[in-house]
Structure formats: structure tokens, C-alpha cells
Design a protein that fits this description.
The chain is of the alpha/beta class. It has 2 domains: 127 residues, Aspartate Aminotransferase, domain 1 (Alpha-Beta Complex), CATH 3.90.1150.10; 249 residues, Type I PLP-dependent aspartate aminotransferase-like (Major domain) (Aspartate Aminotransferase, domain 2). It contains 12 helices and 15 strands. The chain has a 7-stranded mixed β-sheet, with helices on both faces. Helix 10 packs parallel to helix 12.
């Protein structure tokens, strides 16, 4: 069939697609493959289920009040939920800038950082992915920058934590460029879609030391690992970090409304009291996004949710780490409800769909990020299927 729209990140003639018929919390019905269970929260955003009624009702209630507001408008929801968000971040000071997605959040973080420092160069990592727009893609190191023109002269790469645990080489990069030219570090708190690579506390302590020594900003990308994806409310909670800027999207609304946010510390927000903030969007602080975000924050603070999450996390971690014993599995990495499995002879996405599973795969890597609505036994059942696939030689052809 010739589709009148594009499919993302692929040659259009190579697409693997399916006709979507219906959706429930953990799975969806397709015309070609029947019932398929989602083990990656689609693209990591549907953390609270594919059909979360609590979030849906919050959106519907706001829709019945008003669904459009000027960026200059103040209203109770906007004021209330922003304070709730800052409290959830454990921040007493600073401000929030709202966006409609992760790449937009990172673009605006870049603009703020370069404006306040009057410096252009950003230090990033080759394993990172920060988004598909020009600025965000320019500081992304993975395959998605291929075939695109990027701002390479404004990006400098630092080694990964396992290659430079004491940041000796990283400091050399800073000195070679000159700290007077560098705005700061822009880092995924935990490398997510490119392999689930957490860095040790020692490395993060070194990053903090270099930020202080050379007056560099610390900008953290929490687009994927925020809102309990890694076992804490936010990834940087693992490392006792005090970032200058933090970016959010995906789980911020459970994926139900395109939405995102940028936290700017007091240092950043104070600067823009007297200087123009040259950032803005037509759908800034969209009321439906704010309503969905408030519902997500309420879910994350609910004692029953936290108990359920911890039980699910135990099951997930136990099963995922047990896969490391499989003959074809080369390595397993897992943080919270996010895992990467490196496996020899990985089948195609179509093969997984035929077995009733939807997950993110690339080259020889599976990324697992199940939503939090699974009951432990339900998740076990789907991981049983995944284990059966891993136990068999790739028999697609």
C-alpha cells in the first residue's frame, strides 16, 4: 500500500507497520498480528499506560473548561501545577518554560544556556540522543544525525564515563577548546535509547567539579528517564545533582498530549528578569498538557502507585538480569524500569510482532521500558514470551 504520509527514521520502502484497531492499558489490537503487548511504552512516553483513564479524565475535564490559552494568560491550572511541578522536582527557586516536546525542550535549553553565558560550544556525548531538530540533533551523537547538516563547530564530544572515569581526557577537551568558549555540559542523566548506560557517582562528581572549576553550566536531559522511568522520580535524583537546566517530555503527560518543559535554576531565571527571553511557542503552556501533567504528578505521588511500581520493578529487574545467562545474550543493563539487552542474531520487529510483542530494537539491541500499568504476573507472561524468542535461533528466513 502506498501511504500518503511518511514513516519516521526509515527508508519508506522498508517500513514495518500495522493497522491499529484498538488500545487498552498494556496492549493494542492490530489487523495483521492480533493482540500485541507493548514492552517499550511505544517510544518510552506511554509510561502510565496506553489508555490511562485518570490522565484522560483530566484532559477531558480541562477540555470542557477551555482548551486554548494565550501564552500571556495566567490561570489557576497554570499557576497551581507549575508550583506542584517545582515541588516534585524538590526545587524552591527557579522557573519552568513549557514546550510541546522533547526536542523543543532541548532547543530552548540550548538557547537559554548560550544566551546567559554568551558562549556557543556545548559538551556532549557520542552515545547521546537529544532530539530531531537542528540544535538538539547537533548535540546528539548517534546514527540519527547522519544525512543531516548539523552545527558541528558548536559541539564538542567528551568520552563516555567508562572510557574516562576520572575525567582526565574530558578536562583536556575543555582546555583545548578554552572554557571561555564553552557554555556547558548537555548530558542525558542516564543514556537511554542508545543502550541504558548509567554513569557512576564518581564520574558525576567529576562533572560537578569541572563545572565549578571552569564555570560551566550543567544541563540535564530527562526527556526519557524522568517521571519514575529509572526507579526515582527523576534520573538526577540518583546522583545528588544540582543542575542549572533540566529538560522534560515523554512521561510528563504519559504521552497523551504532546508536551514538555524546561526547568531553569534561579541563576538562569534571574538573568531573564532584566534580559529578553527570546523563546516562545504558539502552544506554550497548553491547558490540556498542563492538565495531563498534573494528573501524572498526582499519580507519581500516590502511595498505592509507588508500592505497585516497586513491586513491578523487582519483577522486571529479576527477570531482565536473568536473561544475562542466555547463550546468545552478550550483556544486560537495567536501571529501574529501563533495560537494554545486547543479543546475537536479533530478530526483526516483524518477528516480535508476530509473537505478540512490541519493543524497540536497533542493530543487536533490545530496549525494554514497559509501562507501569502491568500487573507483575502480566509482565512476567510477556517476558516469558521474550525469553522463548531469545532461546531460539533466529528462524525468520
Amino acid at each position: 500500500m502506498d501511504f500518503p504520509y511518511f514513516f519516521t527514521w526509515t527508508k519508506q520502502k522498508d517500513i514495518t507497520h500495522f493497522d491499529l484497531l484498538s488500545v487498552d492499558e498494556t496492549s493494542f489490537e492490530t489487523k495483521e498480528y492480533g493482540r500485541v503487548y507493548d514492552l517499550s511504552s511505544i517510544s518510552y512516553q506511554a509510561s502510565f499506560g496506553l489508555k490511562n483513564k485518570f490522565i484522560q479524565n483530566a484532559i477531558i475535564n480541562q477540555l470542557n473548561q477551555f482548551a486554548i490559552a494565550s501564552p500571556k494568560a495566567t490561570f489557576d491550572l497554570k499557576n497551581r501545577v507549575t508550583h506542584e511541578f517545582l515541588n516534585f522536582l524538590n526545587k524552591k527557586n527557579g522557573k519552568i518554560f513549557y514546550t510541546t516536546g522533547g526536542a523543543e525542550s532541548n532547543e530552548n535549553a540550548l538557547k537559554m544556556a548560550r544566551r546567559i553565558t554568551n558562549k556557543k560550544v556545548i559538551l556532549s556525548r557520542k552515545l547521546s540522543y537529544h532530539g530531531a531538530t537542528l540544535g538538539a540533533l547537533s548535540i546528539s551523537g548517534d546514527w540519527r544525525r547522519d544525512h543531516n547538516i548539523t552545527l558541528d563547530e558548536w559541539t564538542a564530544w567528551i568520552p563516555e564515563a567508562n572510557k574516562d572515569p576520572d575525567l582526565i581526557e574530558t578536562e583536556k577537551v575543555i582546555k583545548n577548546i578554552g572554557p571561555e568558549n564553552i557554555a556547558g555540559f548537555f548530558l542525558e542523566t542516564i543514556i537511554g535509547g542508545n543502550g541504558v548506560y548509567p554513569a557512576p557517582q564518581k564520574w558525576w562528581n567529576g562533572i560537578k567539579r569541572l563545572c565549578k572549576k571552569y564555570d560551566l553550566l550543567l544541563i540535564l536531559d530527562e526527556v526519557l528517564c524522568g517521571f519514575y522511568r529509572t526507579g526515582e522520580p527523576f534520573g538526577y535524583f540518583h546522583y545528588q545533582l544540582e543542575p542549572d537546566i533540566v529538560t522534560f517530555s515523554k512521561g510528563i503527560t504519559g504521552g497523551m498530549i504532546p508536551f514538555g518543559a524546561v526547568y531553569a535554576s534561579e541563576r538562569i531565571s534571574t538573568f531573564f528578569e532584566e534580559n529578553i527571553l527570546s523563546c516562545g511557542l504558539t502552544n506554550y503552556a497548553h491547558p490540556l498538557g498542563l492538565a495531563a501533567m498534573e494528573a501524572v504528578i498526582k499519580l507519581c505521588k500516590d502511595d498505592e502507585f509507588i508500592r505497585h511500581y516497586k513491586n513491578l520493578e523487582k519483577v522486571f529487574n529479576r527477570r531482565v538480569f536473568s536473561f544475562a545467562k542466555k547463550p546468545r545474550v552478550e550483556e544486560v543493563r537495567c536501571v529501574g524500569m529501563l533495560a537494554a539487552i545486547e543479543i546475537e542474531g536479533l530478530p526483526s520487529l516483524k518477528h516480535f510482532l508476530e509473537k505478540g510483542l512490541y519493543l524497540v530494537i536497533h542493530d543487536k539491541r533490545i530496549i525494554l521500558a514497559p509501562n507501569f500499568c502491568y500487573l507483575p504476573k502480566q509482565l512476567e507472561s510477556q517476558l516469558d514470551i521474550l525469553e522463548e524468542i531469545m532461546d531460539k535461533k533466529n528462524d525468520e528466513g
